Amino acid sequence: MAYYRKCIETVVEQLNRFHPAKDSPVQFLEAASTSLQTLSPQKQAFVSEVLSGCLEYRKLLTVVVDAFYVRDGRLCPWADYNLFQVICYLATFHLEELGFPLFCSIIKSQPADKMCKFLGFFFNPSNLCSWIKDEWSLVYETAHVKNWTDPLMRWQPEVQELLNQLERELTSQPPLPKAKVTEPKAFNLTVPRPRAIPVPEPVPVMAKPRPVPRSTYQSPKEPQVLETTKRCHHRKVEDLLPKTSPTSPEEMQRAGPKARRELPSQRPEKLRRWFVPRTHKTPKLTFYTPNEVPVKLNVATILREGALYQRQVEKELQRVDKLVDGAGDFSNFLQWQKKMQAKDREEQLAAGLCRRLRGKLSHEEAALARQQLLQENQHKATQKKEEMAELMQQCAQRRLQQERSMKELVERVMEGQKNIRAARMKLLRGRRQTVQEVAEENRALLQQSAEEAREEQRRRRELISQLRALETQPTHQGKLVDLTQTPGHGLEGEMSIVELRERLALLKEAQQREEEEKRDQIIQGKRTKSQELQTALEQISLCRAATGRSAALRWEEKKAAAPGAPCQDERVQELQRRIQEKAAERRRQAALLHVPARRATRRRPRAQLEAQHWLELEQSRERRLQALQRGGSAGGGPARRLEAS
Q1: CA dihedral 88, 89, 91, 96 (to 10 degrees)
Q2: For residue 506, what pLDDT is reported?
């Protein structure tokens, strides 16, 4: 039975490698024959015969096996699909040739429960004579199908006895022995030593906290100072109102247009509100790159900017007309306003410097606290390292003892395994000798069947090559068509294919001419529009040059009138002195600890950063002024004409 089981397993393994969508049966059989050269001739002939038959009658076998899985074999694994195909093929086409005893041996070599289910389904007369016969008749002729089903019906009683025998074997099999339940045993663990009572840590002495400053519960003085300054300014403005109000036409002419708009002579109340000093926000800093990158303007931007400059020119002309009519000047008030703004700016700079110095002082105090904490942490770390060294030494001694005990146990186990290996090798030699004797007997039987299978395979190849040669004979199928002939269907406007092609070519030429004319019109319109935009760009460049020149002059005046460094009062000097003391104390502690001040060395001083920032701002403004001067000198002629207008 082992011989037949091995043959059937070989066939099933080859069928599992076959893929109908990719592989050709002929090529697959050739590849399988080369892979089966290692088998004996008798076994090779049997495997080749069954494999070729299963591939040839694959449609018939698929009908039976698919129906079996749908009806009775729902619990059977799909991995046995090809096994059921092989059994179906042997029962249908080789039962007479093999004989019933040999067929019984093949069936008994396979799992009994699977064979009992499949043979009971396949040899059932209600299935074999009804739908199986009808499905096979759809693939082959009815006469052939009848030649296959009639022998199966004759063998039905013998097969039924075989099924009864298989069922008795299944029922007579002893039940599987119950698995021995594992009894758990307690681990023989070493009792741990009692832990030593740790030495209590000394209670840390907390530093005395600094008292809360009185300024926390008092309102700041800055709002009171600002309110007092505001009242003083109100009184000064009310005293100066009758003296500085422009009443004569000469004074109105000396005052600028901005002063005339801000201070109407008819409304003194509004004048008082405008004279009140306001807090000015620090403007956003703008840095300009040294290289001038040209900006490409679109059409909407060009037209919008041209309209803006046109409105500015009209407004300037209106201002000149008002000056000619006798408008006044307002320069005295502007000078006083600039002086007061400069004074406020100095006060703001002094207050900002005090805030920065307070921040530096708090930074130095925090650095001192960090150094003290670092010294305490170093002392604690040295104590922890000593304790860890003692613990590591104890663990190393315990590990050495465990390794010695494990080595002794391994040596005892290796001696027991050597005796088991010697007995196992002796048993394997006896089994190999019996297997070789059986293989030599089977090799002689399979060699004869392999020769017959090769002859049958060669005959089939010759027949297939002849059929393919007949299929590849050329056949002449064609019809001559005259393109100049009219079809003659009696339709209106009927014409030949040649005439239709000529008319389509003429129509295409007319469309191309229309497209070229439209394209010329569009190009002409674009040229006109680009010329207008070029004119607008020239006007915009003239206006930009004029505005750049005026901005450069204003910047020069503002730079000349810029105040110097803020004066240092007593608060600033006191803060600087305290910062120097704290810094000196921090350096002394750092030298004692031999630890570099990380944050102080990593970050540059705030004063140095501010100085670098203001230097970069000054350089960017100078570069902008030079760029405006270059632009003004390039467009000097048009700018002068614009100012004159």
Answers
A1: 170
A2: 94
Residue 299 lies in a domain: no
| 77, part of any domain | yes
616 alpha carbon, distance to own chain's centre: 41
Please identify, among 113, 137, 172, the residue that sits at the C-terminal boundary of a domain: 172
How far is it, in rounded angstroms, from Cα 15 to Cα 20?
10
CA 606 to centroid of chain Cα atoms: 42
Is the pLDDT at 561 greater than 70? The verdict is no
The CA distance from 15 to 11, in Å, is 6
Alpha-carbon span 220 to 270, nearest angstrom: 32
Taking the mean position of all CA atoms in its chain, how far away is CA 617? Answer: 42
Tokens 């840390």 correspond to 204
CA dihedral 88, 91, 93, 99 (to 10 degrees): 160
Cross-strand pairs, 340? none
DSSP conformation class of 80: G
Residue 83's domain spans which residues?
2-172
Name which of 374, 277, 402 is nearest 592 in CA terms. 374
* Distance of alpha carbon 345 from alpha carbon 566, whole angstroms: 9
21-75, pLDDT tens digit by residue?
788 888 888 888 888 777 788 888 888 888 888 888 888 888 888 888 888 888 8
* Average pLDDT of span 233-253: 58
Report helix, strand or coil for 431: helix
Asked whether residue 446 is domain-assigned, the answer is yes
Print the SS3 string covering 18-74: CCCCCCCHHHHHHHHHHHCCCCCHHHHHHHHHHHHHHHHCHHHHHHHHHHHHHHCCC
Of 147, 164, 136, 162, nearest to 60 by C-alpha is 136
Greatest Cα pair distance in the chain: 143
Domain count, the chain: 2
Give whole-number Cα distances, 15 to 11, 28, 50, 600, in Å: 6, 10, 10, 80
- Residue 488 region, left (φ>0) first, then alpha (ψ -120 to 50), else beta? left
Domain boundary among 154, 172, 190: 172
- CA 273 to chain CA centroid, Å, is 61
CA–CA separation, 413 vs 421, rounded Å?
Answer: 13
CB 115 within 8 A of CB 87: yes
HEC readout, 194-253: CCCCCCCCCCCCCCCCCCCCHHHHCCCCHHHHHHHHHHHHHHHHHHHHHHHCCCCHHHHH
41-56 and 58-71 are packed helices; what angle lies between their axes, rounded to 10 degrees?
80
Q: Whose structure tokens read 């022998």?
A: 151
DSSP state of 295: P
**Is the CB of residue 90 less than 8 Å from the CB of residue 7?**
no
- Whether 501 is in a domain gets the answer no
CA distance linking residue 15 with residue 22, whole number of Å: 14
The vertex-616 CA angle with 614 and 618, nearest 5°, equals 70
Spatial separation of the C-alpha atoms in residues 447 and 608, rounded to whole Å: 101
DSSP codes of every residue in 609-626: HHHHHHHHHHHHHHHHHH
Share of the chain residues as helix, strand and coil, in percent rounded to the nearest 5: 75, 0, 25
Residues contacting 94, CB < 8 A, separation 6+: 53
* Residues 112-127, mean pLDDT to the nearest whole number: 85
Q: What are the Cα distances from residue 410, in Å, to 380, 388, 406, 407, 415?
A: 45, 33, 6, 5, 9
